[in-house]
Amino acid sequence: MKQHIIIGTAGHIDHGKTALIKALTDIDTDRLKEEKERGITIELGFAYWKDNITIIDVPGHERFVKTMVAGVSTIDLFLLVIAADDGIMPQTIEHLEILKFFGVQNGLVALNKIDLVDEEWLALMQLEVEEFLKKNGFVHVPVLPVSAATGQGVEALRQVLTEKIEHCAERKSTRPFRLNVDRSFSIHGAGTVVTGTVLSDSIAVDEALEILPDQKRTKVRGLQVHQKDVQQAQIGQRAAINLVNVSKNEAERGKTMVRPDTLEPVTEFLTVLQSASQIPIKIKKHQEVRVYLGTAELLGRIYWFEEESALSPNQTYHARIRLEESGVCAPGDAVLIRTISPFYTLAGGRVLFLNPPHLSQLRDNWQDVFERLSSNNLTEQIKIFLDFNGFTSVDLKTLTQQFFETESTLSKALKPLLKDKTLLVVEQPNGPVYLFAPALEKAQAQLLAALKEAREKGQLKDGLNKKALLNLLHPKCEDELFFDRLLRRMVNRRLLIQVDDRYFTPEIANLEQRQKQSEAILQLLLESKFQALKSDQIAEKLQLPSKEVKALLTNLVKQGKLHSIAGIFYLHDQTLQKLLDFLKEEFKEKSALDIASLKNFTGLTRKLLIPLLEYLDQKQFTRRSGDKRLKGPMLN
């Protein structure tokens, strides 16, 4: 199949664009009654030349630049028409600048109406046009003298056009189907028909479509390419699509046709703009402007990150555009900025990122963000999106709508992120869902900081449930899968301890556990009475790690709840107090006590009794005198 080529005209009003198209193709593109009466092009006109070439005729009047933009936004080749008797005029300059902003470098200039000037003037005008082209960066654009009125030079123009067409680069795109509507009309008995250039992929009869930005669903009833019925329209072709159950107003120029769920409307986007060579009026940050995307003209406000308070000519600006109503674009699309009134072209460039975060998130690192977005590295662009996306998971559908790429293209771009664990995959019934590891780390750090503060205020004794933990995150996490995986991750890392439906910090959880273990030790020693136990005996009886028991015993001794006898045996404080009470009563009647009486009271063998008596001596509850014990100064 031959490659389909779109040629777009450009040039000042009344320089003969429509007449030249008719001379080339024998088709009159002025179809409206008003166009015939006034002798000017108001709406887009179309001439079908050969089997695979469409020529779009655009208006030259400054009031209809929005229509001109709709025409040139999809062309492969431009035909700039300049009248030899008038020369370079305001819309000549503006149209060439628009072509440059849209990246259309391939084309030629028809120096028309040569029948109205002499040879000397023609030579002068030819030189002026060539210098004009060179000054604007169009160095390989031929200038051909013609007369649409007499036919002079038309055949030579046709030949050069044919050569240019043969060398046009083939349109390539991995993106899903898209068509920007440039005409919409109704046909009796058939309904609404829209026309435009198929920008990517293809569309077939009976396939479902979505009309953006309104997100209305429809279906393809019929298709035409070059006024012939077809079953399928391919990338690069001019197509007429007959839609099901759609009114003309619902699919007017400026709307975009896509397959369902492949692209979402935008209200803001980031772009790199090149300002026009002349900016006659002062344009400040946040000023209202006209924004041209595809075939749509929208109102919006412009903000650039550079320090200049007003736009200057011939400068590069990294900008954020906020639309006053929803629009449609994808990364890489051309964008044109013009004034509200009077009409001046201000700047043009390419869309980089859709629906970016708040300005405050970009002001400190905008240079890095724009550099990475401009790299044409889809993997890097996805990382930026995931970073902006906050505490939420994403699936391939979300990424498709953000970047307007097929799932296979996106899956390939995700591989490096999965390989280095920047992205974690969670398999779900409807397909894989991805979690951004840096977002999990950020959320984890936030939770830990908030929990530390709450612990210091004594607010974590009873732990927190899932809802209470969720409220600690800012911005709030509304993605259940993301939050569940965050909690699971923190539990696995022992940063949180889960007990039933509540979560504790390790410190709180360990404290609660230690308290239970300490209570068990105290109870065991209380029940053991005067039979003091060693550390390893306690560990064995309670089935606890020996190291943990030693730490707990040391802490209980410090608290005065236990007493360490000879650094080996441990005695409950209540048991010691009973012994001290016994001693006090005995010393009321006796001046000294022998070992036998102490042995009878405690029921201990000499092996345990001797260390206990030495402990009493050490604490000055008793004083040793031979084989007997006297009352010590601390026994009151």
State the main characteristics.
single chain; 636 residues; alpha+beta; Rossmann fold; Elongation Factor Tu (Ef-tu), domain 3; 5 domains; 19 helices; rod-shaped
Distance between the termini: 113 Å
- Classified in CATH, the superfamily of the largest domain is P-loop containing nucleotide triphosphate hydrolases
Quaternary state of this entry equals single chain
Average of pLDDT: 88
Question: Topology, pairings included?
Answer:
Layout: E1 5-10, H1 17-25, H2 33-38, E2 45-49, E3 53-57, H3 65-72, E4 77-83, H4 90-101, E5 107-112, H5 119-135, E6 143-145, H6 154-166, E7 178-180, E8 183-187, E9 191-200, E10 202-204, E11 208-212, E12 216-225, E13 228-230, E14 232-234, E15 238-243, E16 256-258, E17 266-275, E18 287-293, E19 296-304, E20 316-327, E21 334-338, E22 345-354, H7 366-373, H8 378-388, E23 394-395, H9 396-403, H10 407-419, E24 423-428, E25 431-436, H11 437-456, H12 466-470, H13 480-492, E26 497-499, E27 502-504, H14 506-528, E28 533-534, H15 535-542, H16 546-558, E29 562-565, E30 569-572, H17 573-589, E31 592-594, H18 595-602, H19 606-618, E32 622-625, E33 628-631
Parallel strand pairs: 1-3, 1-4, 4-5, 5-6
Antiparallel strand pairs: 2-3, 7-9, 7-16, 8-9, 9-15, 10-14, 11-12, 11-16, 12-13, 12-15, 17-20, 17-22, 18-19, 18-21, 19-20, 21-22, 23-25, 24-25, 26-27, 28-30, 29-30, 31-33, 32-33
Helix pairs in contact: 8-10, 14-16, 15-16
Describe the 3D structure:
The protein has 636 residues and is an alpha+beta fold. The chain folds into five domains: 5-166, Rossmann fold (3-Layer(aba) Sandwich), CATH 3.40.50.300; 178-258, Translation factors (Elongation Factor Tu (Ef-tu), domain 3, Beta Barrel), CATH 2.40.30.10; 266-373, Beta Barrel (Elongation Factor Tu (Ef-tu), domain 3), CATH 2.40.30; 388-504, Arc Repressor Mutant, subunit A; 517-631, Arc Repressor Mutant, subunit A (Orthogonal Bundle), CATH 1.10.10.10. Helix content is 35%, strand content 28%. Strands 2-3-1-4-5-6 form a six-stranded mixed beta sheet, sandwiched between helices. Strands 7-9-15-12-11-16 form a six-stranded antiparallel barrel. Strands 17-20-19-18-21-22 form a six-stranded antiparallel barrel. A hairpin with a 2-residue loop joins strand 26 (497-499) and strand 27. It starts with a strand and ends in a 5-residue tail after the last strand.
